[in-house]
Specification:
Strand 9 and strand 10 form a beta hairpin. This protein is about 30% helix and about 25% strand. The chain is built from 16 helices and 26 strands.
Length: about 500
């Protein structure tokens, strides 16, 4: 399966932009060619380059983009922007060339201008960051916005949505050239409100440059991505980059995690707080938890109460819904309108987020995308709360990613389940047996009496888990969630945890 299969989305029409306008607006130095040359798109990658594009050649991890300038021109690039190092590498080319030092720092603003994403033309923009819950909050936001009568867009780890059109995602937050093309296409489709999932990497790697959010939200912070950040303090600062005046107007901070107060202290924009079970501007109360849904209420700063429910389990999901509701109120939506719109529930489908794949009979089987210790803990607690019998946990760990969290993932799992099955996930270029060995050892150290099984491949692991489950029991398969592939030595192998779980249920006699 090729990496390029999920498409990069662009608007059908872009008003041509003359290079002279870009030279003036961004203080470029025109090195060669005609300033009257016009471009109708922008790309940093020849794999996505279209006829009429401006090609931005930047230094990369392994090589400089300027070495691909010739290929870009053959593919239809009308002009090139690069830095001094790129100019030295390119030599003479047959299209106009402009110099811009540190082009990565300007790429978002360049893309926004080329695609016409000027502040006065943009739909209402909501951005959500945090370790866990970004995707869920984004889907909940979009669902409520639709129930409020808005035409919506969404960009998340799982999918991109454009006024009802659904496309599989590639990155949690796409590169700025792709992001601004996507926003321009949303504008073209008359979208008037967009929910955007914002990763820490998107902030530190300038992927959301050129975007100014109306309201941003923070879910939580927990152990993850320490392969990208030196420690939790650096990771926290990266997330807090969203709550700055150059990024957003207003914010909402969830105080449910231990880092909530510390995150709020780093915010430089007006913000309010939301919490479950502790003082905050908005308070969330879980009123009922059953296998098919979670009911909750949200009390506003003025004392008004909004009651609703989600078709998914977990107090942490009620917290995400409370954050979404607070963000909408901060954006100016009336409390009464929101209350009326969600009184019959929030009709959100969250792909691979504690997704129940069970039929009318048999054990409850949930497939989840969680891949951190805190995500495991929240989801296991939610499953335990609605399960009469035993809880069977099934998971694997990513290869070539933050290995420091693996023992904690196994420990949390062992301490909160009755049977543990450890399998493979995305091994990438690591030896999957060595990953499983670390997980098994940590689980047995944490709870020596726990039945722990080391089963590879995952197709066999889910069969074993389901074979041990009966009516009243639950199986939680954490990690794969919505994804339709496994990364094995750089190859995306087609694979669906949801389909495998349903097949296992059918094999063992459950509908």
């Amino acid at each position: 399966m090729k990496e390029q299969i999920p498409p990069i989305l662009r608007p059908a029409e872009v008003l041509p932009v003359e290079l002279s306008t870009l030279v003036s607006r961004f203080s470029l130095e025109l090195v060669s060619g005609e300033a009257t040359t016009a471009v109708t798109g922008i790309s940093m990658n020849t794999n996505d380059l279209r006829e009429g594009d401006l090609f931005v050649a930047m230094p990369g991890l392994k090589t400089h983009g300027a070495v691909f300038a010739g290929k870009a021109i053959v593919l239809g690039a009308r002009a090139v922007i690069t830095d001094s190092a790129g100019l030295a590498l390119m030599g003479e080319v047959g299209v106009p060339v402009a110099r811009l030092e540190d082009p990565r720092l300007h790429l978002g603003d360049l893309a926004a201008f080329v695609y016409g994403n000027l502040p006065e033309k943009m739909p209402m923009l909501f951005g959500t960051t945090g370790t866990n819950g970004k995707t869920s909050t984004s889907y909940i936001l979009e669902a409520i916005l639709q129930q409020l009568g808005q035409v919506t867009g969404l960009t998340s780890t799982a999918e991109r949505h454009i006024a009802g059109e659904v496309i599989v995602s590639r990155l949690t937050t796409p590169e700025p050239t792709e992001m601004h093309a996507l926003l321009a296409r949303m504008r073209e489709a008359k979208v008037n409100a967009v929910a955007i999932e914002v990763s820490a990497q998107a902030l530190t790697q300038h992927r959301i440059d050129g975007i100014h959010f109306d309201v941003v939200g923070f879910t939580n912070l927990s152990h993850d991505h320490l392969d990208d950040y030196a420690d939790m303090a650096e990771y926290l600062v990266a997330k807090a980059g969203l709550f700055q005046p150059n990024r957003a107007k207003r914010g909402v901070v969830c105080l449910d995690s231990e880092y909530g107060e510390r995150f709020a202290a780093l915010a430089k924009i007006p913000y309010v707080t939301v919490a479950t079970g502790k003082p905050a501007d908005f308070t969330v109360t879980v009123t009922e938890e059953v296998p098919a849904r979670t009911s909750f209420s949200v009390a506003t700063p003025s004392g008004e109460v909004i009651e609703s429910w989600l078709p998914i389990i977990g107090a942490h999901m009620a917290s995400n819904a409370g954050l979404a509701i607070a963000m909408l109120i901060e954006a100016g939506f009336a409390v009464d309108h929101i209350r009326e719109s969600v009184a019959g529930g929030i009709h959100a489908y969250l792909p691979g987020r504690t997704e129940r794949v069970t039929g009318e009979t048999g054990p409850d089987v949930y497939v989840d995308f969680g891949h951190s210790p805190d995500a495991f803990l929240n989801t296991l607690r939610a499953v335990r709360k609605v399960t009469r019998g035993k809880v069977i946990m099934l998971f694997g760990a990513d290869g070539d990613r933050d290995a420091s969290k693996r023992p904690a993932m196994a420990k949390v799992s062992a301490e909160n389940c009755d049977v543990l099955v450890i399998t493979d996930h995305h091994p990438r270029f690591e030896d999957p047996a060595s990953i499983r060995e670390v997980l098994v050892e940590a689980a047995r150290d944490a709870k020596p009496e726990l039945p722990v099984f080391d089963i590879s491949p995952p197709e066999e692991a889910i069969r074993l888990a389901v074979s041990m489950a009966g009516v009243g029991d639950a199986v939680l398969w954490a990690g794969p969630g919505h994804q339709d592939y496994r990364d094995i030595r750089g190859v995306r192998t087609p694979y669906s945890a949801r389909a495998l779980a349903r097949a296992a249920l059918k094999e063992f006699g459950w509908s």
